[in-house]
Amino acid sequence: MTIVPTGTDIAAAAPAGKGVGPLLRAWRERRRVSQLELALRADSSARHISFVETGRSRPSEEMVLRLAEHLDVPVRERNSLLLAAGYAPHYPETPLDDPALGALREGLERLIQGYEPFPALVVDAVYTVVAANRGITMLLDGVPESLLQPPLNAMRLTLHPEGMAPRIRNLGEWRGHLLAQMERQIALHRSEPLRALYDEVAAYPAPEKADRGDEPSPSVPYFALPMRIEHDGRVLSFVSSVSTFNTPMDVTVSELAIETFLPADPATAKYLHALGG
Question: What is the mean pLDDT of residues 12-17?
Fold first, then answer.
């Protein structure tokens, strides 16, 4: 599948009109770091950190970036901190279809195609699918065309009652895992589009307690929570792994995630290899 631009617009974490001090204090408290500990990490003083947080001192651009780095603030929110401090954004936000990201797009395509016959896809910050391989196409067998119209959304495709959900044997567990994952991201980014997506998919009908997800677990000793899904009369088991870019310098790149699905048992691996020829 060709990588496509998504035009994602994630709301900044910072409420409009708030100075940088309260925002930095909120990030510090969220990370459970004391002023002294942050000062030691950032080669500053607890007194200066206190003055910055209360608005008595305006931090330099370098200090804002240094504090954001030590608080592990997401790249998009680092730009918000700079704006709140009166500085220009430091990190660009390049559209995914921009020629400048050509090498990135090619690398992502090669990566997920090289993972075949196992499923792999690339999503943005609101789970819009920007690239997928043939393994993902296999998992989408039977999904109606109405859900396959672009832009595709991985959460919607997985949890929609007309999507993959009816074929997921442990839907209760897998649904809980995905919703908890989204809740963690909302707490970090405070994104309105992500919150809207969460509200939508959380409102989809939940499986009853007696659904197939309560069947006895197979004898295979899974090493992580699997997604067990029916395909062509078989039950395939996958565990997912999510990768992001290390030290990204662009907002768009920082919000991309590569999710790969590894066979969780020998039967699934054998079937996928046979299916892939």
Answer: 42
How far are the Cα atoms of 61, 70, 85 from residue 90, in angstroms, in the given order?
Answer: 9, 16, 12
Q: Are 170 and 213 in contact (CB under 8 A)?
A: yes
State the amino acid at position 115 in one-letter form: Y
pLDDT above 90 covers what percent of the chain? Answer: 81
Phi-psi region of 146 (alpha: psi -120 to 50; beta: other; left: phi over 0): alpha
Instruction: Classify each residue of 27-60 as buried b or exposed e, where b means 16 or more C-beta atoms within 10 Å of its C-beta.
Output: bbeeeebebeebbeebebeeebbbebbeeeeebe
| 82 in Cβ contact with 88 (< 8 Å) | yes
State the angle between helix axes of 171-189 and 192-202 in degrees (0 to 180), rounded to the nearest 10.
Answer: 160
Cα radius of gyration rounded to whole Å, the chain: 22
Separate counts of helices (H) and strands (E) for the chain: 12, 5
| Residues 22, 36: Cα–Cα separation, whole Å | 17
- The DSSP secondary structure of 208-229, one letter per residue, reads PTTSGGGSPPPSS--SSPPEEE
Alpha-carbon distance 38 to 206, whole Å? Answer: 43
pLDDT grade, residue 3 (50/70/90)? Answer: low
Q: State the DSSP code for 99.
A: G
CA 200 to chain centre: 17
Q: What angle, 0 to 180 degrees and rounded to 10, lies between the N-to-C axes of helices 61-70 and 20-30?
A: 20
Taking residues 127-141, report their average pLDDT: 95
- Answer yes or no: pTM beyond 0.90: no
Tens digit of each residue's pLDDT (9 = 90 or more) over 18-68: 699 999 999 999 999 999 999 999 999 999 999 999 999 999 999 999 999
Q: Per DSSP, what are the bridge partners of residue 168?
A: 229
Q: State the Cα–Cα distance between residues 211 and 137, nearest whole angstrom.
A: 26
